[in-house]
Structures are given as C-alpha cells and as structure tokens.
Amino acid sequence: MDITTFGALSEPSRLRIVELLSTGPHTVGEIAERLQIRQPQASKHLKVLLESGLVDVTAEANRRSYSLRMQPLREMDAWLERYRRIWEERYDALEDYLLKLQAADENSDIDSKRKPE
Amino acid sequence: MDITTFGALSEPSRLRIVELLSTGPHTVGEIAERLQIRQPQASKHLKVLLESGLVDVTAEANRRSYSLRMQPLREMDAWLERYRRIWEERYDALEDYLLKLQAADENSDIDSKRKPE
DNA sequence: TTACAATATTCCTTTACAGGAATATTCCTA
DNA sequence: TAGGAATATTCCTGTAAAGGAATATTGTAA
To answer: In the structure, how far is the CA atom of residue B90 from the C1' atom of nucleotide D19, in angstroms?
Structure first.
C-alpha cells in the first residue's frame, strides 16, 4: 500500500476530483468548473494525483483529459482486507453474545412464568 | 466518508501504529518502542488518530491502552464500493475482449489450416 | 505568423504539520 | 507525602503544502 495515496486523498478538492472522475474522464476546465476552483489550482491538484498514480492524462489537441486509475484504489482495498477480517470477527463475536443473551432471556421468561404458578 | 481518515493515515508512523494496533491494544510505551520513535511523538500521533476516530483509549492506572476503532475503516470500505464496481466492470470488459480475441484467434487458426489445403 | 484557447508553471505569502527538547500531569507505591 | 514511572503538553524551529496572481507553454485556426 503506497502511503502517498492517502496523502493525495486527504485534500478535499482532490477527493472530489477523484469522485468526479469516477463518472468518466474530464478535462481540466471541466474539473475546475465543477469544483468551483480556479484553473491553476485544478492543474496543481491534478499533478499531485498524477504523481500518486491515481490519475492518467491523455492529450487531445489543446486539452488534456484526466481519467481515474484503479490500481491505487485496489491496493487500498487489499490493505483493508486485514481489517475487514477483524470487524467480521468482532461482528461474529457480537452476534454470539446476542444469541446467548437471547437464550438467557428466554430462560428467564420461562422462570417468570413458572414461579407465579 | 470522513476525509480526516486519509489525513491521519497519510503519515508513515501513524499508518504503522494502526497496523500495530490491528494485532490488539497497546500502550504508548510499547508503541513508541516498536516503532522506534520517541514517546512524545507517539503521544502526538495517537492524539491525531484519536481525533480522527481511528483509535480508542482506556486508562489503566498509570498507562493508557490504545485500541483500533473499526468505524472509519468501514467507512473507507464503503467509500471504495463505488470504485470496486468500476474495476469489476473494467475487468469484465477486458475479459469479454480477451474472449473475443480468443474466438477470433480460433477462427484464424481454422483459416490458416484451411487455406494451405 | 499572429492571436486565442486550454493548460501548466512560477513566485509569493500564509498556514499546517512534524520533530526535538523540556516540562507538566497523573497515578502508584514506599 | 515524596519520588518515580508512564504519558501528555508546550514551545520552538524547520519544512512542506495550499491558494492567489501573474506568466509561460502548447496547440489550433485564421
């Protein structure tokens, strides 16, 4: 897991750029307009995203089309695997606990019905 | 998805702390020793992790035990879902393409066997 | 070749953040 | 209650990063 991915995504405009690009490639101008930021800032953020590998460029005449690269996101996904296991484990443990509670509750129900008799 | 999660994980020591805590709770001293950083830096990083919700503390006498919180990681996982769909789509598209190539290849194979005859 | 549109880069200033060293705080035990 | 262990906080300094404004670059069309 390349840590620069986190750095790149830790800036609001850059996160929004990534989300925008998830709908398909866009030019710098479009990105700047959609995000309501100035063109130079858009270019700067795109440079950071490019260097972190989150984005690809292809030049078409005057314009540059930026598109999302999946690899860093896949790596993030792989990195998460370890934690997914943990929370599933914990979920299972909680479930077990609740099942036991429920079982105990049913017993106490039986008791509360028995005693009065 | 809370963007501060990315910020918190974008610092190498903090990422390592999270990974260490994935094996269970640890005290500040243990963390500092394992990561070969000074205790004050460990405390500072833990503070950032705490504020971003990635970590929990429980005080036990003199010591403080830090443990991992799963919620921000689950949110990251949920955030990734959208991208997972994209790369699976792309994978499917690639697969289709390869299958077509293969089919075309088999045809050209037949052709190459036919023509000489 | 000139002019214009789209984008990138530079320079400047301000702010955020990280590490080091020193110190404060909190809790335990003798 | 004095001292020590574990941890947090403060202050300082250096550095990286962000935005604004201006400018450079590149490609296209007249």
So the answer is: 36
- For residue A104, the enclosing domain spans 71-117
Neighbour count for residue A22 (Cβ, 10 Å): 14
Same domain, A17 and A44: yes
Are residues A31 and A65 part of one domain?
A: yes
Indicate if the pLDDT at residue B48 is higher than 50.
yes
Domain final position from B69, B85, B102: B69
Q: B28-35 and B39-51 are packed helices; what angle lies between their axes, rounded to 10 degrees?
A: 110
Same domain, residue pair B89 and B116: yes
Q: Look-up: residue for tokens 């484990």?
A: A89
**CA to C1' distance (Å), from A26 to C4:** 22
CATH code: domain of residue A53: 1.10.10.10
Structure tokens at B77: 């996982």
Give the one of B7, B70, B80 whose C-beta lies nearest to A83's C-beta. Answer: B70
Question: In degrees to the nearest 10, what's the CA dihedral of B23, B24, B30, B36?
Answer: 30
Q: What per-residue confidence (pLDDT) applies to B110?
A: 55
A3 touches chain B (CB under 8 A): yes
Write down the pLDDT at residue A97.
87
Low-confidence winner among A21-25, B2-6, B31-35, B103-107 (lowest mean pLDDT): B103-107
Taking 80 as the threshold, does the pLDDT of residue A21 lie above it? Answer: yes
Residues with CB under 7 A from strand D: A 7, 11, 13, 37-38, 40-41, 44-45, 48, 59, 61-62; B 27-29, 39-40, 42-44, 46-47, 57, 62-64
